[in-house]
Amino acid sequence: MQLRYMGFDQAKNIREYKFDGVAADETTKHFVVSADLALFFRYHVGLQEGPVLCLKKLSADLEALQQVPHELTSLDLAAYVSAQAAAEAERKTKRKRRTHQ
Question: Structure pTM?
Answer without folding.
Answer: 0.84
